[in-house]
């Protein structure tokens, strides 16, 4: 299926979407059904992912190219703090436009406090994993513009073993509130840095934590599009709930000046299949 020509696309609204759990199954590559739906969109779409480029490329960007998508779009990775310009019109071309420095913003003292607090988790009995869970890959990933902390580790390529371990952790977390307890610990340890430096700690997907700076998150691309040619931005994500890594967009909407019409709409979705349903319901499929 060919992508809808640009001349048929509305310039009134920009569609910005999370990737993992919104456009793809969790930690799984883009499927042809979603790629075909994206080709049919009659409004410009861009993406804002919690993951970094080494994870987003094999999960979404490369499959989108392989499935025949031939347009330009922007991809904001690292929870919105790194901008990639994607031009798929003639070849697979992805160029970094902007990258925020997390460590420089915090400064050495506060950055070390954060890292020490994360390392401290390993020695606290309350935060030990269940016996059936393993640590596969790196627990801490410094992406330059943010930090991801995954109690069970994180790998670039998810093996069958890692996928089963992930599923087991999701069940463990839901039944015990494991991540909620870690969140409370980190917020307590880092309250001063959160107040002074705008540090933000969010749930990353179903298994990890995204640690970034307020304003250098998924609200960054939202504001970039509003400052550009678009009158409205519609954001779609599966983690708009309180504490989710899309929640900053919902907070932006909720705290908009009540005397003005908010140009941002936050649209919660439950899965990639649900996202396609929303495309159809909104009349965005050509």
Summarize it.
The protein is an alpha/beta fold and 286 residues long.
Question: How is this structure best described in words?
Answer:
This protein has helices at 32-40, 53-66, 102-106, 108-120, 160-176, 178-189, 191-197, 219-227, 247-254, 272-282, and strands at residues 13-17, 45-48, 72-77, 82-87, 93-99, 138-142, 147-154, 199-204, 208-213, 232-237, 264-268. The protein has 10 helices and 11 strands. It has 2 domains: 8-100 and 217-282, HAD superfamily/HAD-like (Rossmann fold), CATH 3.40.50.1000; 102-213, Eukaryotic phosphomannomutase, cap domain (Hypothetical Protein, Haloacid Dehalogenase-like Hydrolase, Chain: A, domain 2), CATH 3.30.1240.20. It has 286 residues and is of the alpha/beta class. β8 (199-204) and β9 form a beta hairpin. The strands form 2 sheets. Strands 5-4-3-2-1-10-11 form a 7-stranded mixed beta sheet, with helices on one face. A 4-stranded antiparallel beta sheet has the order 6-7-9-8. It is 37% helix and 22% strand.
């Amino acid at each position: 299926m060919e992508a809808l020509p640009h001349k048929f696309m509305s310039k009134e609204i920009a569609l910005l979407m999370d990737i993992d759990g919104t456009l793809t199954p969790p930690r799984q590559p883009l499927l042809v059904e979603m790629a075909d739906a994206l080709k049919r969109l009659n409004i410009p779409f861009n993406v804002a992912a919690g993951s970094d480029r080494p994870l987003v490329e094999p999960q979404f960007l490369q499959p989108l190219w392989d499935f025949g998508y031939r347009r330009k779009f922007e991809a904001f990775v690292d929870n919105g703090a790194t901008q990639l310009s994607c031009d798929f019109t003639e070849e697979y071309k992805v160029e970094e436009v902007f990258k925020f420095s997390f460590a420089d913003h915090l400064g050495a003292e506060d950055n070390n406090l954060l890292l020490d607090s994360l390392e401290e988790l390993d020695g606290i009995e309350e935060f030990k994993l269940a016996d059936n869970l393993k640590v596969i890959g790196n627990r801490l990933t410094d992406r330059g513009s943010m930090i991801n902390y995954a109690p069970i580790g994180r790998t670039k390529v998810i093996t069958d073993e890692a996928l089963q371990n992930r599923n087991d952790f999701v069940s463990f977390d839901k039944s015990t509130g494991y991540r909620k307890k870690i969140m409370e610990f980190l917020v307590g340890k880092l309250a001063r840095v959160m107040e002074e430096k705008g540090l933000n700690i969010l749930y990353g997907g179903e298994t990890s934590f995204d640690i970034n700076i307020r304003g250098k998150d998924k609200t960054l691309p939202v504001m970039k599009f509003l400052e550009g040619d678009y009158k409205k931005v519609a954001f779609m994500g599966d983690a708009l709930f309180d504490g989710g890594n899309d929640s900053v967009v919902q907070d932006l909407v909720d705290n908009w000046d009540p005397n003005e019409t908010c140009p941002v709409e936050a649209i919660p979705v439950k899965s990639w299949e649900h996202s396609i349903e929303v495309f159809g319901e909104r009349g965005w499929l050509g």
